[in-house]
């Protein structure tokens, strides 16, 4: 039941090298030195885990390739806004990534499918430990890990879950929930984090407090609140589907997705969200959540252009998006 609602789990660790200023104060030579040290730390590690990394220079990537990384939640929009001296280190399965020279020298990130905070944190912690063997991270006994932004001081950890909450969105309960979550040290945002919109009823729930709290406590708090949100979504969903209107919306959405010749990104996200709600409610039997989740990712604008290997106008993307959805469904 939880994995029907929790799409993915992410843990991100912010780390800085003690001998260098924060990236905002680093010149190009300094950024290159940081990159070199991190690359060597990975290459010189005896762990099999580090053998799977590839190194991507943002300056050598096309704009659509960089945007596609954002769409896949591998990097932040901020990371691709300035490519100078920035490098992405990522495993072949895209599960582990390290942004170098973003807001901090390192942003270690692990993403797993479904609801799995313990395993996701454990893997991120392993990568952190391996790097710490060769790199000296900036750390203070009182403040913990030192970060450019004070809101990340302490553990430097942001743990989050991606939730599909269409029933709570339709019932307009999200606003009230968001207000209550801030009192519990958590925040709920749109699909791409801070400042983004919850397209397709996708919400990112993450811890807000990093100072004066242990990683274990932060993870337990996030886990407990996630489970409560999942229960609220299920209760609201069951109540919603007692009406014919909800069922009608689901099947109308499926009809449009199957037969439309052109479909915009925003409309596709909304309709796929409705169909996914119908799948988890047991109304739609011939499609599963994994298929819908794959489509959520594959229909993104930059991803379509990367797949076609050329720039496309919005109209061309809408046509190709419709063809892709029909082929899958």
Describe the protein's architecture and organization.
With 329 residues, the chain is an alpha+beta fold. The chain folds into two domains: 2-236, Glutamine synthetase/guanido kinase, catalytic domain (Creatine Kinase, Chain A, domain 2); 244-328, no CATH class. The protein is 47% helix and 17% strand. The protein contains 13 helices and ten strands. The protein has helices at residues 2-5, 28-43, 63-71, 77-81, 117-132, 166-170, 174-183, 215-240, 244-259, 265-280, 289-298, 301-308, 314-328, and strands spanning 6-15, 53-57, 87-91, 96-100, 106-113, 139-140, 144-145, 157-164, 186-189, 202-207. It has an eight-stranded antiparallel beta sheet. Strands 6-7 form a two-stranded antiparallel sheet. Helix 3 (63-71) crosses helix 12, helix 9 (244-259) packs across helix 10 (265-280) and helix 10 packs antiparallel against helix 11 (289-298). The longest helix is centred in the last third of the chain and has 26 residues, at 215-240. It starts with a helix and ends with a helix. The mean pLDDT is 92.
